[in-house]
Amino acid sequence: MRRNINIAIAVIITGTAVVIACNKRLNTFDQNNPTTDSYFKTAAELRNGVNAAYSSMRAGNLGGREWFFTHDMRGGETAPGGAQLEAPRAELLKQPSPAPSNSVMSSVWSGTYQMISRANLVISRGPAVNDDPAARDVIVGEAKFLRAWAYFELVSMWGDVPLYTAPDTTTDGFKAKSPAADVYTQIIADLTDAAAKLPTGHSKDGRATSDAANFLLGKVNMQKGDYAAAKTALLNLYGKYTLVDNFLDNFDGDVKLGDKVFTSGHEFNPETIFEIVFVDKGDNDFNWGYTGEGATAEGSTMRSQEYGIVWGNVVPSDAILNEFEPGDPRYKFTFYESGDSIMTARSTQVGKVLTEKGMNVAQSTHNGVKQKRVYRKYSILDWTDDGFHPDGINQRIMRYDEVLLMLAECEAEVGTPAKAASYINEVRTTRASVQMPPVAPANHDDAIKAVMHERAVELAGEEVNNIDILRWRKKGYYPSLRPDPKPGQIAFFPVPAGETSANPLIK
Q: pTM of the entire structure?
């Protein structure tokens, strides 16, 4: 991690930063190799610093690849696609705890601390920037949001972790692990300040907003068990967003091959609160260096490729398949199975039928039927089935449906099941494409079970189940309300070997 901090600072001060704009183009700048003393004097320069933190968020260490693997392998919604699943990912999926040398886990650790380092530099330089105070305050708010997001990833999966809140360019400025309670305190302080500094309303360019900060503040407080604080934050969002009529509009984006644009998708739609931006340049390339920097760097994601029918590393688990009620249309919106048609361009052309032979994945079992299935969410198969295609589908990490379900959980926990049901039923009954019977839980346990079910079917394959499991396991809901989906799993990751070997304060 120390090496990542030094690299991050070197990258920022040389002005190599990715700009995430609504047109999803990449821009860089270079001003004759400025130093830390000469740079970050203007709001424009501060903006380039926070762009570098966004860049870390979407790079291969995090959103572009290893982040979704880390969450999904530790959750209960995935199974191996076959022998092709690489060893470190299979270890996360199958073992109670990975070895400290696990490369996927280590990538997420490195990526989050790189984000934190870049955010720290922006936050520390902000007070000296006076040419545009309004822009400066927004930029610092974005940096605090990004730092909070990174630390929540760390504390929710590792527990006690080193807490860095200021830049450190030395080679020996290591920190010991801070108690998780202190990390949560810092996260909440950052998000509270970010919510006050950032603009409210829909994000149309992938930048953080006050609403995104309140969303994360609600989620963080839920994870630490403060449901009253979570509800307060989440109510700032209630009624400001709408569920889109077509469920699938939440999981498409730009798909391009060469000069041919298959679709531009429905990104930044009325349901979305915050998205990690990805770009399909049409060149079928991915930034395997995992950094996300540079004028020509790829901004694509590997999600569709990894979970598709060619590489087939991951398939839906039997448990998540069997969670869906009969007739729930979200089943077909969430999964493809042999016999379904792909390449229909949203049912505007005939397409072609998926066959068992044509899917390089293991079978799964739904209602006793063995069949090959893959995730449809974040898939490009309705547009193209070329064998290798990193894509540009934005990762919707904050959607309004989850606001409703988090509010439902808050109400269930404080003993108001009827109010919990009203939030759940907004998700179940108000979309044109999803019309399910309303629920009416009578007590705390029934309300919690209804929340658990609805989060499973609504958010399947969206990298939230791992954190849900940790929260509910801690509260004893496994096995009192439901069987533990990952029995014997150790709650927190070990600190990566690369960190313990370099940091003398962590052994």
A: 0.93
